[in-house]
Design goal:
The chain has 383 residues and is an alpha/beta fold. The chain has 17 helices and 13 strands. The strands form 2 sheets. The chain has a 7-stranded parallel sheet with strand order 3-2-1-4-5-6-7, with helices on both faces. Strands 10-9-8-11-12-13 form a 6-stranded parallel sheet, sandwiched between helices. Helix 1 runs parallel beside helix 2 and helix 10 packs parallel to helix 16. The longest helix has 19 residues. The two termini are 17 Å apart.
Length: 383
């Protein structure tokens, strides 16, 4: 780790990278915290364009208060190899032009590992926010991204204390690890008061079905393991249809999931039930839908964390999770895609309220402040 030699009063540049929707919620509070130390650090925000829906990207940046990116690489879609390679090719000249003292990446998307690799090859310290999370499922592309980014990183900022043990087992020295807390929860707490109401969201999408607060299930589904295999997808759609007889289901459908459901000929089965199909919704709309739901069914890592913070029962449609604290301390239950387990868990929520859990340590809205303080301590000593 190299401290920055700052013999002038000029602030030093920190390149901050976002690439896909989950990154926006993690970067927003960091950008706000950096504004409080702009005499020391000038953030340079790079959007790789991995999330290539321009309208959705603009909505997220606006709602979360993220400034317009200093650079948009516009890489768009592609295979993992194509996307990662294009990000690397376009990111390298940015570092040559900006000459930052460090590069900060968040999460586990392709942009995270691609920009991290470029930075380290150019001898620029890499800072990883949300380090040390492990599902131990190498079939998940995100797991590969997490492992590689952590090995590359100079400073590893964790969301839960147990993440450090994962890193230590992988040979990462303790002095590179810092428990800072969960920036996703910073964003959630900062935006709760602005969250859209259930009625406003349904009206916004011209939904005519009758759905009332605390009397519906919220569903998200996007993992390849769930939507790419037709047998698995058909099994999940069938159980969701059955579940909708107990209470309505609101289902904001990821574009890729929509395509897979249509290709499998399963759309009619959902449309005939009490399932409210919505297009991808904004951050504030999703926050409102989560907050007023009876329960959430998801294969998203971020929603596991957010439901724990909100105290809403979460049923995770995966065989594992990289966020075990949401199970041991929070409201999350892992059920996989077994219809019996799913319905048993739903019935438990309906009869007893489900897991109540508690909010984990440092999920308090102050993680970004701790992150910025640690960066200054390590890289800008004397300030």
């Amino acid at each position: 780790m190299t401290a920055v030699k700052n013999n002038t009063t000029q602030p030093q540049v920190l390149v901050c990278v976002v690439g896909a929707r989950p990154n926006f919620m993690k970067m927003a509070p960091i950008m706000r915290a950096l504004q409080n130390v702009k005499h020391l650090i000038t953030p340079y925000l790079v959007h790789t364009g991995q999330h290539y829906d321009q309208a959705m990207k603009d909505t997220f940046f606006q709602q979360l208060g993220i400034p317009k990116p200093d650079m948009d690489l516009g890489v768009g879609s592609g295979t993992h190899a194509v996307q990662t390679a294009n990000i690397m090719l376009k990111f390298e000249p940015v570092l040559d032009d900006v000459n930052p003292f460090a590069v900060l990446v968040v999460g586990d998307v392709n942009s995270t590992v691609a920009c991290g690799l470029v930075a380290v090859k150019k001898q620029i310290p890499l800072i990883h926010v949300e380090a040390g999370l492990r599902s131990y499922d190498r079939e998940m592309p995100e797991e590969i991204n997490r492992i590689l980014t952590d090995q590359l990183s100079d400073l590893l900022l964790t969301t839960e204390r147990d993440a450090a043990s994962n890193l230590l087992k992988e040979g990462i020295s303790e002095d590179r690890i810092c428990f800072a807390g969960n920036v996703m929860i910073d964003s959630l707490l900062n935006n709760c008061n602005q969250a859209s109401s259930l009625r406003d969201t349904l009206d916004n999408y011209a939904c005519t079905q009758t759905v009332s607060e605390n009397n519906y299930a919220l569903l998200t589904l996007h993992r390849p393991s769930n939507v790419d295999d037709q047998a698995t997808l058909a099994r999940l759609i069938k159980i969701i249809s059955e579940l909708s007889q107990k209470l309505p289901v609101i289902f904001p459908v990821h574009p890729r999931t929509q395509q897979k459901i249509s290709q499998a000929g399963l759309l009619a089965e959902l449309s005939e039930q009490r399932v409210v199909l919505l297009p991808p919704v904004s951050y504030l709309e999703m926050l409102g839908l989560m907050r007023s739901a009876k329960l959430v069914l998801t294969d998203s890592g971020g929603l596991q964390e957010e439901t724990t913070a909100l105290g809403v029962p979460c049923i995770t449609l995966r065989e594992n999770t990289e966020r075990p604290i949401t199970v041991t301390e929070g409201t999350n239950t892992i059920v996989g895609t077994d219809p019996v387990k799913i319905m048993q868990c739903v019935d438990e929520v309906l009869t007893s309220g489900g897991k109540s859990g508690r909010v984990p340590e440092y999920w308090d809205g102050l993680a970004a402040q701790r992150i910025v303080a640690e960066i200054i301590h390590r890289y800008l000593p004397g300030n």
